[in-house]
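User: Teach me something about this protein's shape.
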Amino acid sequence: MNKGIISSLLALALATAATAAHAVPAFARKYDSNCSSCHTAYPQLNKAGRKFKEAGYAFPKLKGETTISDFLHFDSYLPASAVFKIRPYDKKNDGDEKLRALHEVELMVAGRLYKNVSGYFELEAEDEDTNARGFEVGVSDAWLTYTHSDAVKLQATWGSLLATDPYDTYSGARRLTRGTQSVIARSFGGADNGGSLDTSRQSLSVFGRPMENVYYSVGVAGVADDAEGVNPGTIYGRVAVDVMPDVMVGLLYLDGKCETGATNCTVDRDYTRFGIDAQADIGNARVMAAWLSADDDNAAATSEVENDAWYLQGEYVIKKDGRPQIVPLLRIDSYETNNGADDYMSATLNVGYYFTQNIRGFAEYFREFDVPSTDSEDKRFTLQLEAGF
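Assistant: First, the predicted structure itself:
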């Protein structure tokens, strides 16, 4: 057994010993609850978790908050959480073996700010930053939400385009794996400033539930990764319908323009995205799938290129004493490049173990098994530990 694997097993053993702390994230502390109240398996949301998120991080109909005045609602402590991610072993087939003893640190503050106003703020630092010391701190996500009613909520966002979305099909932040689904992570033809659905951007949106089983979101946004929202020519619409109590089917449409002046736009380029997605909970199993068609102007804006992507993911939550303990997961990803001429397909096998509800480790094996003849198949094995407090 090589030294990398030995050090990885040692790190996971130390994590097991740390479970006596029984630390729980801030929202669970605030509501004297546990993570399983809102998560199928942390960080993925269940139905109660979706309602909690949409209500501005509160259960106002279930548990009232102490009113200090007519204006402010305070917790008895600052509702802050920190997440640490450790990768004691990370190896690609064509790369070096890495000891990423501390891979990423996140600090999150969220909750009610003023009557019907809620907010979320996240600082993030990770080892892949390119500055000399690494771990450059930046604002990865931030938003402010005003709730007029269940049907109408207004949100100003720096974050992913679907930050308001309570479902997990397009959420890279609530994935259980190291890698992000192809539909979410790909930049396709690159006309969206070289970014993806998961890339942070400036946006204003209206969202809510006009009916209990129907969620919608519409908005206007800048292009991906442009912090000043130069020439915000992107509009989008999203609808998700709970066709059954535990089955959702959704649609996504995005139409945008990356105009000269944005970070990576040397010419004006148009792009569209059309997606279909579904999520189903069957007992302790969850199945998610999404398909996305992307049309982009080419780099010179002289013609269009079309590329598709899809994924299918299944997971099963094995519980002990009512909480997740072991979560095996399998995902198949597929995407196209070069105007559909080149196809890529990969499989991700992930097995997660929850030492407590908010401390989990996983082993993940990723492998490409269909690539163009000009490329070689990639594979990667990762051990990761995540702890949220």
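Now, about its shape. The chain is about 10% helix and 50% strand. The longest strand covers residues 97-114. If you'd like, I can walk through any region in more detail.
User: That's plenty for now, thanks!
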